[in-house]
Amino acid sequence: MPPATPRRPSLIMADIEGTDPISGAADETATRHQLTGLIGRSAPLPIWAHLDAMKDWLARARQAATQADQRGSAAAEWLLDNDYQIQRAILQIGEGLPKAFYAKLPGLAEDGLRRPRAHQVAQSLLLASHLQVSLSSAVEFVVRYQNKMPLSIAETWAIPTMLRIVCLEMIVTGFTQLFPQVAPPFALTNAMGKAPEEIRSAAHYISTSNDKDGIAAAIDAFLLPLVGGSS
Asked: Are 14 and 28 in contact (CB under 8 A)?
């Protein structure tokens, strides 16, 4: 039986219409946010509110990884080799989103969750780029989005940090499925909210693939450049 491979995100409307998927997704996201409406102040994201607990989770996840069975060996090896990238991302998130700065981020009135709009923009960008974001695609998405809904300066500055947050949410979700004995540092039912199925499936892939090369490629391509990349 061939090894599992990451499921390519389903076609979005821009793909079907033959337009640029990044621009099309930005238009769709902005239109959805126009209908949802903004609120003056967003609620704390679970991972941001429990950022200090991420350090303890990483230590416990490392310990579990040293005792992983064959099913989890590939993901465990990746974690042991790249835990410093996660540590760096945690530090960068703390530095990039202090409380005073976070308080400036407006939220979306969707489902009463009051998530920061910048977080949802980052999540949509990941989906539109099939979880492989480049600088050019990020700039294109943000510029196109602002044709319909301008972002504040604070939101624009927050998007790189929000990309790291979304990626860490996926990593924690994936490794929690793999190592259920390691309690997550925040409530996973609230962490990803109504994240698109394509993003949820990437987190699931991290925890279920037995193919060493496959899972390494998935994490490196989808998450590592964003989690460990420079500001």
From this structure: yes
Domain ranges of the chain: 13-228
**pLDDT value at 120 more than 70:** yes
CATH architecture of 13-228: Alpha-Beta Complex (3.90)
Max alpha carbon distance in the chain (Å)?
52
Q: Please check whether residue 89 is in contact with residue 164, taking contact to mean a CB–CB distance below 8 angstroms.
A: yes
- For the chain, the straight-line distance linking the first and the last C-alpha, in angstroms and rounded, comes to 41
**Which of 20-24, 185-189, 200-204 has the highest average model confidence (pLDDT)?**
20-24
CA distance 221 to 201: 15
> Token digits for 132?
């492989």
Residue 36: CA count within 13 A, CB half-sphere:
22
Kindly state the tokens that stand for 13. Answer: 């409307």
Angle between helices 21-36 and 135-146 (to 10 degrees): 40
Q: How confident is the model at residue 31 (pLDDT cuts 50, 70, 90)?
A: very high
